[in-house]
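Changelog-adjacent note: as of this version, every example in the card shows the full chain rather than a window. The one below runs 604 residues end to end.
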Amino acid sequence: MKNIVTKILLVLSVLLWTSAGLWAQDGGSEATVADDDKSKIRFNGLGRTLMSQTSIGGDVLKADTNTIGRLTDGEFLLDLAINATPNKTSEVQAIVRLRNEFGGFFGAGMSVEVRELWARGIIADFIKYRVGDMDLAMSPYTLFSPDEEGFVNEPAIFQPLKEVIDYEQFYTKDNTRRLQGGKLDFGFNFGTILEDLEVSSFIARIRGTDFFTVPNRLIAGGELNLSTVTFSDSLGTKADIGINLIHTFDDLQSGNAVTGIRNTVATVDYDLTIMDKGNMALNLSGESGRSNIARAERVTDADGKEENVMLSEEDDTFMDVGLTFKLKKQKLTVSASFVDVGPDFFSTGAQSKRVEFGANKTYYNRVGVDRNLRQMSTFDLSRDRSLYTFRTADRLMAYDPRYSNTLPYGDATPNRQGLKFGVNYGSDNDKVAARVNGAFLSEIRGQGTFELKDFTLIKAATDINIHKFANWKNELRLTLGVQLETTKRGGVEIEEVDLSSTLLDVGLEFELFSKFDILLGAKLFSSEGRDYIPIRENFNDIQDFPAPYIADDQETLLGVGIKYEFKKDIYMTLQYNSFNSELGSDNPNNYDFQQLFVLYNMKF
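Full-length structure tokens:
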């Protein structure tokens, strides 16, 4: 313990000295720009040092003499972004990553790679283009990265490690997907009926070939968005309409593969402003469309000509329509919608999850005398980068019903029908900001039975700025979040399903003095009951049902720490976290974690 603390302090000293030098040169965390305003090359990026010590204990280790009781790991990382504008209409950027694992000396454990590379510009003052890496999102049913499970209103103390995951996996607040390819955008302005029209198209490769059995996989699509003029000045009536098309396909001419997938999704989305006058606004919005998933085979006819033949094919539709009412002065928004997503609806660009529930965990993947796989927990979801991905999958990915059973694939979750609702009040700068959303859904088609599952999901969160009530200069903020979820199905005993789970987030941020915060937080999770999780094959067809999934879990994650912000986007946090997992009373697999870590993060 003494050695790791000494090393942490040594590294922090070096980084603080380095960052002080950067501030002297740069005057802040913005991109470095030469004194010459005509400079065409700029430098910015991110530096990070993360070191942690994780120990395990509990019943699972009583007869286990093979598991190491304490793990120490970390990394030193620098992402250097080089941005150049060779002329007024073009721009290129590359991010070079230098990384060294904790404990690596004299080049051992060092890696150098290109993290990002792109170019963009404007052609003839009309068409925007981009090639290389890009972040794209269309609609929740076409191209979208749904939020991961296990989070409601994340306490500030747990946010730094979550931000590391988001940065590493290219997650954004706009739910974009990281792709590599090319993109074109252009638009038109009109004077009557239509106000403007925007067109966007792209193509990207999401999987490379191995030149043998795995072909290239590409994704292409586009959207056409148009806005009308205001039809009624007295009511503010207008409409926004979008047409979306996305197509994912395997190039069977690459390598020796003879079969591949074809997935096409076409939708229409709309937002009709029925009224936007004074303090009130009422909107009707939604999206509807169809998906097609097929498996193609490359065959050669008698004349030696190759063609693709569809082996199997499935189609389905979806509908999502709702109303939104706003009271602007009161900062209150209320929404309700009806959804119907067909059992065979499939969209690889929208249903691919962020969490790989079958991936190996960084911390103690196997424990116990029998070296069993340790069950995933809120501890892992909140900090383990190895569980996350930005890849797209050609079938519905595995999920854990304890954390998300109602909408495990986001809004595009198939085989769901029912109502969704939301209420939002206030903003981040108000004394109180709160939001509640949820869903009351049921299956459209039974799984292994004619009985249908019913789902209930309630998520609520609030931020209370206590310092604004007391008129304090230093900030004091309490954050609360809760998620309640139930799944039920009737029938005979073997058909019955009854699974419930609760996730509670509690956080406290106290600014002791300027830019120095004391952080406290807790995540409390419980799950109880049983469900059946199907095994799927081909195009998400249910092959079989294993034994019932039984849940009897209690998880507690507690954290205490400090955070000092040197400048905007430059901070250090030192934290201690304690985690306990109880898988039923007297369960020999119960365990606990203790983790101490320091994170220094610098954007410049």
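Structural remarks: The domain at 2-603 is CATH 2.40.170 (Maltoporin; Chain A).
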